[in-house]
Write a structure and sequence with these properties.
This protein is 46% helix and 12% strand. The protein is an alpha/beta fold and 445 residues long. α5 links the parallel β3 and β4. The longest helix is centred in the middle third of the chain and has 32 residues, at 196-227. Bound molecules: uridine-5'-diphosphate-xylopyranose (UDX).
Length: 445
């Protein structure tokens, strides 16, 4: 919305949320950091806030005044009842649709921005039409393809924007309205229009394909470790095939983030719903490899440290699911910390953007261990040298660039011997670290 506000000065954009604290934070010019850390976002918000970008909790007023409404609520994996652990929980989407239906007094375009299962637009439309004030709605699907950490650039230089709408004159007119917004900064060939179901499915499919590439290279990484091949060399060799391409071939400690696992689970659930057993099993395997990669990494830490990490200090560099974000959702670091705490290790974390409170709430959410045990076993500091001091090992979880530039000889001197580095991102230079005296363990190398 900040990008739209800055590129379309004649459009008024109001971001509404029922959480007063969050809206206050977005409105507070004295805060050093916005509630979401995203490179370039602060500057954009500061240049548009109060001009044509507003943050408010007055949901009904904003609905009443707008011609186009983007639904951008979360659609987490359902954690109860039918479809538990797989299906998307659509209760927030439904609540939005009901509020819009109740409040709207004139025709509106409703845009699904949240990632949703295929055919959700039909649900939204049905609620809008049957509970509303007899006004007309057009429902568009406009999935978001931006990745965190590069969100602004991804939007400004989008590979494509996808807009799905009804194949009727009214549907096409609504598509035209939304196209004209993106047309402020994108060329017509970058804006792709489809029917609603293709658009909804394309978002799930895109994330499934991306995650599949990571799981494929991670599966290769295990084979590389068994055969003395180097997964970085394999990735380079296959990535130079223009049919494969070089991106998303970085072996890692496993993918995280709010999208990949959730969207694949969703895809699997839909496939099962239609009785497509083989299709469901095929995509499920992408998640199994990801879980396996996390577990494999955690076990490697345990076995390398002489099968005993009880009361040993292990330093984590990074907790976020990738660099340049403070988002920790589904981060592999959470799972690996959980495994090691079960082995009674002590985890000390340095992440430039994530607070200890967030880390503890991630751990408490994942396991049923009493919260005070998590709190006793996990600590954090913004001093990477203090975090590494006295530790038996450092595990690199996030590929923050700044980790490369640390004073590694100093870190080595402060650690227990022999000092291990488990580089879950293949971020650091093995030869240099070995020369300093570290035992270096990478992924697939
Ligand atoms: C993803 C999609 O890329 C984006 O289009 C969609 O809108 C939302 O989901 P995001 O979750 O922000 O974006 O992160 P992404 O850059 O895709 O990375 C996902 C995870 O895969 C991260 O944990 C990342 O570290 C990992 N990854 C990525 C790898 O392990 N190896 C790679 O080569 C690439």
């Amino acid at each position: 919305m900040a990008v739209i506000a800055s590129k379309c000065p004649e459009i008024t954009v109001t971001v509404v949320d029922i959480n007063q604290k969050r809206i206050d934070a977005w409105n507070d010019p004295s805060l050093d950091e916005l509630p979401v850390y995203e490179p370039g976002l602060k500057e954009l918000v500061e240049s548009t806030r109060g001009k044509n970008l507003f943050f408010s909790t007055d949901v009904e007023k904003a609905i009443d005044e707008s011609q186009m409404i983007f639904i951008s609520v979360n659609t987490p994996t359902k954690d109860y009842g039918v479809g538990e652990g797989m299906a998307a929980n659509l209760k927030y989407i439904e609540a939005c649709a009901r509020t819009i239906a109740r409040v709207a007094k004139d025709d509106k375009i409703v845009v699904e921005k949240s990632t949703v299962p295929v055919r959700t637009a039909a649900t939204v439309k049905s609620i809008l039409e049957h509970t509303g004030n007899k006004v007309h709605f057009q429902v568009l699907s406009n999935p978001e393809f931006l990745a965190e950490g590069t969100a602004i650039d991804d939007l400004l230089n989008a590979d494509r924007v996808l807009i799905g709408g009804e194949q009727t004159p009214e549907g096409q007119a609504a598509i035209g309205e939304l196209t004209s917004i993106y047309g402020h900064w994108l060329k017509p060939h970058q804006i792709l229009t489809t029917n609603v179901w293709s658009s909804e499915l394309s978002k799930l499919a895109a994330n499934a394909f991306l995650a599949q590439r990571v799981s494929s290279i991670n599966a290769m990484s295990e084979l590389c470790e068994a055969t003395n091949a180097d997964v970085r060399e394999v990735a380079r060799a296959i990535g130079m095939d223009s049919r494969i391409g070089p991106k998303f071939l970085q072996a890692s400690v496993g993918f995280g983030g709010s999208c990949f696992q959730k969207d694949i689970l969703n895809l699997v659930y839909i496939a099962r719903h239609y009785g497509l057993v083989e299709v469901a099993e095929y995509w499920e395997q992408v998640i199994r490899i990801n879980n396996h990669q996390r577990e494999r990494f955690a076990r490697k830490i345990l076995t390398s440290l002489f099968n005993n990490v009880a009361d040993k200090k292990i330093a984590f560099y990074g907790w976020a699911f990738k660099k340049d974000t403070n988002d920790t959702r589904e981060s592999s670091a959470i799972y690996i910390a959980d495994f090691l705490i079960r082995e009674r290790a002590e985890i000390h974390v340095f992440d430039p953007k994530v607070s200890l409170d967030q880390m503890l709430s991630d751990l408490n959410y994942l396991n049923s261990r009493p919260a005070d045990i998590n709190a006793a076993k996990l600590s954090a500091s913004n001093d990477p040298y203090a975090v590494a001091g006295d530790s038996h090992a450092i595990a690199v979880m996030t590929e923050w660039d700044q980790f490369r530039d640390l004073d590694w000889p100093r870190i080595h001197d402060g650690m227990q011997k022999p000092p291990f580095i488990f580089d879950g991102r293949n971020l650091l230079d093995r030869a240099t670290l070995q020369e300093i005296g570290f035992e270096y363990v990478g992924i697939g190398t």
